[in-house]
């Protein structure tokens, strides 16, 4: 293999760590630098709103690999360092006053949480987001039994944070501007399931409830809703979505379209610059989408590594074929999702009792996605069928007495 002088990976998160490791697994033994703006080795984010926030996981458990792992693979990890510019003609990145040359550059910069504007009180002390470890450090002292937590946003992160706060004995209210929680991402059936779950644990869910503004001088003390309702709050967690971290790519003149635009090979508009994970958009069934999930970050990062190595060897590049999957933990329920439910026109419910349930999304006769609650078997069968482009007979799905594995044989 003709070795590149250096591969630089910008963003030491899930995708960055995977990409660097995969390059070594594939035999790339040139210089390899992984640069991350956070002062930590790459770590997993999902537990930040689940086990880690609950206190069931420590920092070691969160960290993907210890320093010795990177040392052994001769991966230079620079933490607490933000890449500030890309000079694509010179093939240099700047880190403040320093520059670093590259032959191939991978952008895996993730996404940034949306914050509410100052005009709504989004700047007040006690208003939090949950994206990184430093957010949890700031939030953790707030989570004290008996205090009042207000969660803004009924997506997965807001609901997970609400579940943790309720489990830790707080008085929890969640407001969602849309008519139902999870509206953007799931069917009404899934929303109903999680509404009932939260309410059974004492979480107050206010749907169709829009924040007018937070109340408080320097520190938040409550919130006024559009409909005049006033809520007291000791602190607030905003889970209102993310935006892809595209600033660096945009300033360098790369194409941006709902994220850093990549082609089917995960290449940006500049061939030796690649992108993966939350920051990257790609075509999926004709739509330019981004997937904010661990599975996508890992799979796409691996394709980038494989295609960089293929480029160095002058070999054919491999297309990225996304196989979307996701999970969420709330109270004692594990939700597992496979496929993308865009454009569904029918839901088939499989109810095995005691909260073990799955919702199967169809477009016409085609199974396109599944939400499975405490039902790993349904998830696994659904996922395999969706990934194989097969469908599932709704009569078999609906009948909880049937063995789902029979669907695989058709
Ligand atoms: P990240 O992991 O965000 O890493 C990007 C890194 O790049 C960051 O460390 C950032 O600081 C760094 N960076 C950005 N700009 C620069 C720069 N200029 N220079 C240097 N470094 C830079 N997904 C699931 O599949 N299931 C879940 O249950 C789930 N739960 C989640 C819960 C929470 C609280 C959060 C926040 C996310 C969750 N996700 C979940 C989403 C998942 O964690 C992300 O999709 C995944 O981390 C994306 O990986 P990434 O490498 O693209 O980005």
Task: Describe what you observe in this structure.
The chain has 410 residues and is of the alpha/beta class. It folds into three domains: 7-112 and 242-313, FAD/NAD(P)-binding domain, CATH 3.50.50; 115-238, 3-Layer(bba) Sandwich (FAD/NAD(P)-binding domain); 332-409, Enolase-like, domain 1, CATH 3.30.390.30. 24% of the residues lie in helices and 29% in strands. The chain has helices spanning 14-25, 51-54, 59-62, 67-72, 133-139, 156-167, 188-200, 247-251, 294-313, 376-387, 394-398, and strands at 6-10, 31-36, 76-79, 85-87, 92-95, 98-101, 104-107, 111-113, 127-129, 148-152, 171-175, 204-206, 211-215, 222-225, 230-232, 235-238, 242-244, 260-261, 273-275, 280-284, 287-289, 325-330, 333-339, 346-353, 356-363, 366-373. It has a five-stranded parallel β-sheet with strand order 3-2-1-7-19. A five-stranded parallel β-sheet has the order 9-16-10-11-12. Strand 25 (356-363) and strand 26 (366-373) form a beta hairpin. The longest helix has 20 residues, at 294-313. It is globular and about 60 Å long. Residues 10-16, 35-38, 45-46, 48-49, 82-83, 108-110, 130-131, 157, 245, 248, 277-278, 292-295, 297, 326-328 line the site of flavin-adenine dinucleotide (FAD).
């Amino acid at each position: 293999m003709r070795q590149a002088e250096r591969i630089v990976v910008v963003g030491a998160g899930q995708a960055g760590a995977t990409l660097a490791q995969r390059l070594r697994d594939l035999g790339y033994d040139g210089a390899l630098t992984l640069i991350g703006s956070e002062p930590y080795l790459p770590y997993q984010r999902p537990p930040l709103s689940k086990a880690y926030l609950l206190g069931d996981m420590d920092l070691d458990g969160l960290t993907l690999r210890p320093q010795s792992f990177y040392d052994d693979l001769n991966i230079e990890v620079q933490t607490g360092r933000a890449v500030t510019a890309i000079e694509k003609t010179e093939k240099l990145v700047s880190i403040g006053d320093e520059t670093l040359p590259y032959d191939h550059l991978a952008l895996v910069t993730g996404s940034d949480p949306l914050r509410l504007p100052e005009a709504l009180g989004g700047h007040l002390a006690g208003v939090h987001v949950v994206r990184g470890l430093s957010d949890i450090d700031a939030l953790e002292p707030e989570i004290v039994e008996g205090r009042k937590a207000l969660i803004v946003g009924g997506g997965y992160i807001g609901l997970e944070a609400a579940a943790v706060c309720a489990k830790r004995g707080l008085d929890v209210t969640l407001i969602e501007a849309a008519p139902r929680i999870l509206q953007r991402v799931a069917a009404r059936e899934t929303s109903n399931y999680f509404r009932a779950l939260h309410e059974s644990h004492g979480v107050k869910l206010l749907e169709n409830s829009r924040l007018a503004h937070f109340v408080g001088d320097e520190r938040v003390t409550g919130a006024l809703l559009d409909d005049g309702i006033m809520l007291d709050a000791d602190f607030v967690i905003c889970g209102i979505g993310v935006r892809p971290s595209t600033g660096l790519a945009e300033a360098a003149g790369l194409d941006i379209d709902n994220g850093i635009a990549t082609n089917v090979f995960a290449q940006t508009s500049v061939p030796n610059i690649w992108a993966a994970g939350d920051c990257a958009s790609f075509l999926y069934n004709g739509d330019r989408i981004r997937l904010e999930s661990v599975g996508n970050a890992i799979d796409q990062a691996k394709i980038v590594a494989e295609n960089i190595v293929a480029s160095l060897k002058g070999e054919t590049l491999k297309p990225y074929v996304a196989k979307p999957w996701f999970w969420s933990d709330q109270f004692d329920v594990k939700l597992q999702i496979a496929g993308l439910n865009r454009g569904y026109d029918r839901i088939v419910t499989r109810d095995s009792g005691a909260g073990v349930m799955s919702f199967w999304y169809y477009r016409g006769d085609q199974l396109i996605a599944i939400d499975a609650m405490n039902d790993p078997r349904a998830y696994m069968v659904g996922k395999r069928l969706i990934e194989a482009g097969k469908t599932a007979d709704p009569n078999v799905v609906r009948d909880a007495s049937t063995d789902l594995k029979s669907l695989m044989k058709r």
